[in-house]
Amino acid sequence: MRRTALPLVSIAALAIAGCSASSDSAGTDSTSTPTITREAATPIQSGDSYYQSAAEAVDARIQQRGVKPAKNVILFVGDGMSIPTITAARIYAGQKRGLDGESYRLTMETLPFMALSKTYSHDFQVADSASTATAMVTGAKTNSRMLGVLQDTRFNNCASVEGNTTDTLFELAERAGLATGLVSTARLTHATPASTFAKSPSRDWENDADLKGGDASACKDIARQLIEWPEGDGFEVAMAGGRGSFTTVDQADVENADWSGNREDGRDLTAEWTAKSDDHVYITDKAGFDAIDFASDAKVLGLFEPSHMKFAIDRADDPAGEPSLVDLTKAAITRLSRNDEGFVLMVEGGRIDHGHHGVSAIRALDETDEMDQAVAAALEMTNADETLIIVTADHSHTMTISGYPKRGNPILGKVVSGLDNAPMDAQDGKPYTTLSYASGMTACRLVSGEQDCVREDLSDIDTTEKNFQQPSLVFMASETHGGDDVAIFATGPGSELVSGVMEQNEIFHVMGRASGLVSAPTE
């Protein structure tokens, strides 16, 4: 990695210079600009074509508008949070609170800057979370199913990783002396959180037992990469689900003795974490979480489930208990704020995606609502003049909002007409729901030699019940991602760079340039 001396105060000067070019642009008032000296870096992927194109696009905005320096960066990723998901979650959240859903506003929708993000990967029109998250934290698009590597890497091929690795924003932050954190409701080794630290030609290699195919044995599994992450002093907080990838097949799970870990190499990575120093602690439940003083120097590995954390709507069913995403966000900000140099934090609402994959709209919307509450907590806890907050999604899903339901109709309900307040039936004489999916396991299957399948009659079914699955059109074992653009909401220093229709990898350059961690592109 090459370093270029670029004190962050020079970014403040650029903001002032930008006033002459755009006197009404946001972020040009230097009266509250914090003075932070930071050495900008040129990441090893700077020669990549995707990286260069995005760097130049963001630099052009900086030259036109200027940019305020950001001491801290928080990236919220709603996994699978499509624009229809945001709309439906808005209505759901309002109705859940006894308010008018249609006019309700999510906290993320109140942020002052907004753009659309193009989510395709190097090789897929409709991408996965590994490639899209990699784009956001490295500034370069890559192949689907891969983490932290460039487009020339081949799937399941360890040898092809050499010369194709990247520097993530989190690695640059650690090298610059900032604090770093990572919280998610998915597994810690799952695609989005793993993008912050892992270099892997397969997102599936979460533990050593998963290292299959190609020359997999030559690679480190993702859980091991987290524990052995060489950057700075490592993550201050890393809290999510997924402890199975950190414990061995001979270890009974702490929550259920009938379960065990997944590792076959005999390495208890949780013990390796706590052996690093007296400050390194490991927690597995709500009681352990509540016992931590996050205003201390504790370096916390929290793994609250063998796999993904519970859906918020099901959390009360967990006998051991686990913190909410709001709890995790507050704790992470409290811990990271102890570093006077600043911090970089990712917060992932990982189970929005899983709700959609299971055509469970209520779970997807409820998880979106919970992440939105985490956004509100972050806004409350941080200084708007110091902290860049970006809220976005990695990709879309196939859920749609349709029919002609009346104003105030339950978003999870069956369509009731806005004309005569009567239930609306489809051409087959049966009711239908406002929310449905283009693909999923609830689709009617046409079997050769049999009559056309018959759509389920929902007349006597409560479609608002938490285990109801929305109808789908094309039968799939799991509902698929969507390829439509997703939203980016932003506030704080650097947020003025978020506008128009952006390539997804430009998000890295917005965060990197605003924080002073990433140097300007060179000729």
Automatic annotation (TrEMBL):
Matching SUPFAM superfamilies: Alkaline phosphatase-like (SSF53649)
Pfam families linked: Alk_phosphatase
Keyword vocabulary terms for this entry: Hydrolase, Magnesium, Metal-binding, Phosphoprotein, Signal, Zinc
Cleaved signal peptide residues: 1-25
Top-level taxon of origin: Bacteria
Active-site residues, as the UniProt record annotates them: 129 (phosphoserine intermediate)
PROSITE patterns: ALKALINE_PHOSPHATASE, PROKAR_LIPOPROTEIN
Cofactor(s) essential for the protein: Mg(2+); Zn(2+)
Positions of Mg(2+) binding: 79, 190, 192, 348
GO molecular function list: alkaline phosphatase activity; metal ion binding
Sequence positions that bind Zn(2+) 2: 79, 357, 394-395, 481
Entry binding sites for Zn(2+) 1: 353
Cofactor note: Binds 1 Mg(2+) ion. Binds 2 Zn(2+) ions.
Similarity annotation: Belongs to the alkaline phosphatase family.
Protein name: Alkaline phosphatase
Organism (species): Hyphomonas atlantica
Organism taxonomic ancestry: Bacteria, Pseudomonadati, Pseudomonadota, Alphaproteobacteria, Hyphomonadales
